[in-house]
Design a protein that fits this description.
- The complex is a heterodimer of chains A (154) and B (765).
- Chain A is of the alpha+beta class and 154 residues long.
- Chain A has two domains: 75 residues, Roll (Ubiquitin-like (UB roll)); 69 residues, DNA polymerase, domain 1 (Orthogonal Bundle), CATH 1.10.150.
- Chain A is 35% helix and 15% strand.
- Chain A is built from five helices and five strands; from the N terminus they run ββαβββαααα.
- In chain A, α2 packs across α5 and α3 runs parallel beside α5.
- The longest helix of chain A has 16 residues.
- Chain B has 765 residues and is of the alpha+beta class.
- Chain B folds into three domains: 219 residues, Aldehyde oxidase/xanthine dehydrogenase, molybdopterin binding domain (Aldehyde Oxidoreductase, domain 4); 177 residues, Aldehyde oxidase/xanthine dehydrogenase, molybdopterin binding domain (Aldehyde Oxidoreductase, domain 4), CATH 3.30.365.10; 321 residues, Aldehyde Oxidoreductase, domain 4, CATH 3.30.365.
- Chain B contains 18 helices and 30 strands.
- In chain B, the strands form eight sheets. Chain B has a seven-stranded mixed beta sheet, sandwiched between helices. A five-stranded mixed beta sheet of chain B has the order 1-2-3-4-5.
- In chain B, a hairpin with a 5-residue loop joins β7 and β8.
- The longest helix of chain B has 28 residues.
- The radius of gyration of chain B is 28 Å and the shape is globular.
- Classes of the chains: A alpha+beta (154), B alpha+beta (765).
- Chains A and B meet through α1, α2, α3 and α5 of A and α5, α8 and α17 of B.
Chain lengths: 154, 765
């Protein structure tokens, strides 16, 4: 099997895997980074969202052979201790119910706020519409993104 | 002098204590029953056994409190709210409390079930008594050390104070407290036993005294009623392994199961040449023989996934290889029973409603006579499709079967049943089975069924390796246990401006409404009242889905009442209040809802939503519904955006008794209401030739953030015993939306999902 060197959360990780292995499964099974979740495998639910060069990307749709030289950030590397403004807002508002989709939600929100630091409510709702929360904690996700934006602006 | 508090040992005590070898005090207790005479308390924290106790509390020498409970968390927040109840009565600062998920390794562990919004309701008495008894033990120990009467001492926030103002921390007296006799408590917690057999029971006042252990007056609560964050929040937001799918051990392999593509099919043959050629695939095996034998023996009918067929399993080094291997499998299937489809179900259910083969569930007076004498009879039919659960974490389980033991780990809501079934299936002793529960990525009823546990166990039994069986989204959606398709036909008679008769008929796939559901409002309010049910047995597996039956019944009944009010030219709120007035003082003990409480939530929702002072362009629908022991009223605000009605807001008024943790409670309420809106608007699941036509989120529509209404929650404040919130706000949401949409569009919608049936015409019977 070929070996791939991926730059994940600031350090280079070497993985031996089939070339069509989606980043999602390489992270979970090979690298034991299970914060990135499997939800649908077709890029429709957003549970597997990571950052690739700062963009929110569905890791189930990205093969490890396509990631040479790319900077990948996962939920484990978003901050050292859960202190990213988005994570703090998630905690302050107590967003999760079952919690399964939340890493993906946080990764989508944090990439979005980098590009649009001062979004309107409507922009938040549209930016987050690709991430399904089956518990429907949507009101809290929306409020947490707004709170994180305010914190970042302050 | 010695403590004058009598500490007569009670044989029927529901808690026991021990002094831990490593320091600190351990308390073991039961939610529902007295401790067995044989129950032994461990003295080592590594030896907690949940055979004899439901949960344990450790109080360390430093006064830190750790609660060990195997109660599974599926997202209802019970892992936070239940320890809050103990901490309140024990009177310790919440920051000193730590909650640890326990491990299940028993054959007698019958009630570790998260379902039916019942955890809080059943735990309420036992958890308070445990906390209060532990507090009294600590006070008694401190009093003995001081040589004063325990009644002169008080405990607050982990510190005991005597009349002279001297203080001792809980941690300082745990050694002595562990040796004291347990103060006797009255049997209210123990009597929960009989109550728990009954799915519904009447409201109870929160009592202040239990034996010589004094429970707090609710007005003195300092923790209950305050906002407490989810105890697992840090792990969730940093992506720590918490869920079944995250569980992993050295040497574990991954398994993907190829099940019949259609309900009614069985495996004929398969070719695994291509699958075995996939890099990372270790082996391809067949399972199903043992499950088949079990099925034949047990008449297990609630999961056709355990259908009488073999299944093909790809064993691989990683998940991706397992998925690819399964795609490369070639299998031949044959029809074992007819392949069904939604069109046929539609006709079958209508025929059932038109027919005469019903089972009666409730009969008051004489509806036939009332209908004959009526000025007018209104009849409407309401229809709903099958629905999949779609938990975000697909079904999965870990199993490691060896000659000496069986380890099972994962997300299941019925661990005791799962362990017992695995033992029976594999012909093993239950004592050899250890089942650990993980956090669950959603349940909604799906994880009540243990089919995925049996599959994992059968695979590991065969390959004798630790294995993680996992479903893909497609597997999960296509081989589910669905909310059954149902139709309701409701007819009511009107005479002299009053509703004189009401006849509800249910036609459902596989199962009918049960328990006290036929006695929910408006039962008791109408003199001539009848509920009849009929069912059609399908080979498609069906089961509980968040708020079983009421998730659709509420929409049908409340829509009907609204239409009835329109026909009678009555105000829909006043009509409900008037009907409820007639229920007051009933001596029919099947009527478990409280007319007053339902009236109160309705009034509160009306007031808070501005229902009486509507804004231009905002169309509001109101309803009130009781289910799962909680009284809820909801008002939906709908606006027209172009031709499309859009749900902007849901105002929810809830009476769930004492609100333990408002922050968590509101989360459940918001989620339940949006879930109710989402599935009413979009949820559709069609079968063709035994096969679902949608298998993933590109074809199955779940509500998303940009479609979600804002939910505003209001609680009725009282000191009645708490009831659960996992389900009760879902059923009224669809009704409130349908009623608001009628105002917005002029059309009533009689069929779910609303989005594709907005212009349906009423089916007149």
């Amino acid at each position: 099997m070929p070996t791939y060197n991926l730059k994940i959360n600031g350090s280079v990780q070497s993985i031996e895997a089939a070339e069509d292995t989606p980043l999602l499964w390489a992270l979970r099974d090979q690298l034991d980074m299970v914060g990135t979740k499997y939800g649908c495998g077709i890029g429709q639910c957003g549970s597997c969202t990571v950052h690739v060069d700062g963009n929110a990307i569905r890791s189930c749709q990205l093969q490890i052979s396509q990631l040479d030289g790319k900077e990948i950030t996962t939920i484990e590397g978003l901050s050292e201790d859960g202190s990213h403004p988005v994570q703090e807002a998630w905690k302050a508002i107590d967003v999760p119910q079952c919690g399964y989709c939340q890493a993906g939600q946080i990764m989508t929100a944090s990439a979005f706020l980098e590009k649009n630091p001062n979004p309107s409510r409507e922009e938040i709702r549209n930016a987050m519409h690709g991430n399904i929360c089956r518990c429907a904690s949507y009101n809290r996700i929306e409020n947490a993104v707004a709170m994180a934006a305010e914190k970042k602006m302050a | 002098m010695s403590s004058t508090i009598s500490t007569k040992f009670s044989r029927r005590s529901f808690l026991r204590t021990s002094s831990l070898a490593s320091g600190g005090m351990l308390i073991g207790f039961n939610f529902f029953t007295a401790c067995k005479d044989t129950a032994k308390m461990p003295v080592d924290i590594a030896e907690l056994n949940y055979n004899d106790f439901n949960a344990f509390i450790k109080i360390s020498d430093e006064g830190m409190v750790t609660i060990f409970s195997p109660n599974p968390e599926i997202g209802q927040g019970v892992k936070t709210s239940m320890p809050m109840i103990i901490a309140e009565e024990l009177d310790v600062p919440w920051e000193n409390v730590n909650v640890v998920q326990g491990i299940l390794d028993t054959q007698n562990y019958t009630r570790q079930v998260a379902g039916g919004s019942q955890s809080i309701r059943f735990g309420w008495d036992a958890l308070r008594q445990t906390g209060a008894t532990a507090r009294q033990l600590l006070v008694n120990a401190a009093a003995a050390r001081w040589g004063v009467d325990a009644s002169e001492c008080s405990a607050k926030q982990g510190v005991i104070t005597n009349a002279n103002g001297e203080t001792l921390g809980y941690g300082e007296v745990v050694k002595e407290a562990a040796l004291l006799q347990v103060p006797e408590s009255e049997d209210s917690a123990i009597e929960e036993e009989s109550k728990s057999e009954n799915p519904e029971f009447k409201d109870e006042k929160t009592e202040g005294i239990a034996g010589n252990v004094t429970l707090k007056d609710p007005k003195d609560y300092t923790l209950i009623g305050t906002d407490v964050g989810n105890v697992d929040i840090d792990e969730i937001i940093t992506g720590k392994p918490l869920f079944g799918l995250d569980y992993k051990v050295e040497g574990m392999v991954y398994a993907s199961v190829l099940r019949p593509p259609a309900f009614g099919q069985v495996l004929e043959s398969y070719d695994d040449t291509a699958a075995k050629a996939v890099t990372g695939v270790i082996d391809v095996i067949k399972i199903g023989e043992k499950a088949k034998a079990l099925l034949a023996k047990d008449e297990v009918n609630w999961t056709a996934i355990l259908a009488p067929t073999e299944k093909v399993v790809v064993i691989a080094e990683n998940s991706w290889a397992a998925i690819k291997g399964k795609k490369a499998l070639k299998a031949e299937w044959s029809d074992n029973s007819p392949l069904e489809n939604t069109k046929a179900h539609d006709k079958i259910l209508t025929d059932l409603l038109d027919g005469n083969e019903f089972q009666n569930m409730r009969k008051d007076g004489d509806v036939k006579k009332a209908f004959k004498q009526a000025d007018k009879v209104v009849e409407r039919t309401y229809e709903s499709p099958f629905l999949p659960h779609n938990t975000m974490e697909p079904m999965n389980f870990f199993a490691d079967v060896t000659d000496s033991k069986i380890l099972l780990v994962g997300p299941v809501q019925t661990p005791a049943d799962a362990a017992a079934t695995v033992a029976e299936m594999l012909g093993r002793d239950e004592k050899d089975i250890r089942l650990e529960m993980t956090r669950m990525g959603g349940g909604f009823g799906r994880r009540l069924y243990g089919d995925f546990v049996y599959e994992a166990a059968e695979i590991s039994d065969k390959i004798r390796k630790p294995v993680k069986m996992f479903s893909t989204r497609e597997d999960d959606m296509m081989t589910g246990v669905y909310r059954p398709a149902i139709k309701y036909r409701i007819a009511a008679s009107i005479k002299d401006g009053e509703v004189t008769g009401y006849h509800l008929k249910e036609a459902a796939v596989n199962g009918n409404m049960y328990g006290l559901i036929p006695n929910f409002f408006p039962a008791g309010a109408i003199e001539n009242y009848q509920v009849d049910v009929a069912k059609y047995d399908s080979n498609i597996s069906t089961g509980a889905w968040r708020a079983p039956y009421t998730n659709f019944l509420s929409y049908a009944e409340q829509s009907f009442l609204d239409e009835l009010a329109e026909v009678m030219e009555k105000d829909p709120v006043q009509m409900r209040l008037d009907l409820l007035e007639k229920v007051k003082g009933t001596n029919d003990d099947r009527i478990q809802y409280s007319a007053e409480r339902l009236q109160d939530v309705l009034k509160l929702a009306v007031e808070k939503s501005g229902y009486r002072t509507p804004k231009d362009g905002v169309y509001q629908g109101v309803c009130a519904y009781y289910c799962h022991n909680t009284h809820v009223a909801e008002v939906a605000d709908v606006v027209m955006e172009g031709e499309q009605p859009v749900v902007k807001k849901i105002t929810v008024a809830v009476d769930c008794g004492i609100v333990i943790n408002p922050l968590g409670a509101k989360n459940q309420i918001e989620g339940g209401a949006i879930d109710g809106v989402g599935h009413s608007m979009y949820g559709d699941f069609v079968f063709e030739n035994g096969m679902p036509t949608s298998n993933n989120y590109d074809k199955y529509r779940l509500i998303r953030m940009n479609e979600s209404p804002i939910v505003e929650t209001h609680f009725v404040k009282n000191t009645l015993s708490p009831t659960g919130l996992g389900e009760p706000t879902l059923p009224p949401a669809g009704a409130a939306v349908a009623i608001a949409m009628k105002k917005a569009t002029g059309n009533r919608v009689y069929k779910q999902p609303f989005v594709s049936n907005m212009n349906s015409k009423p089916i007149l019977g």
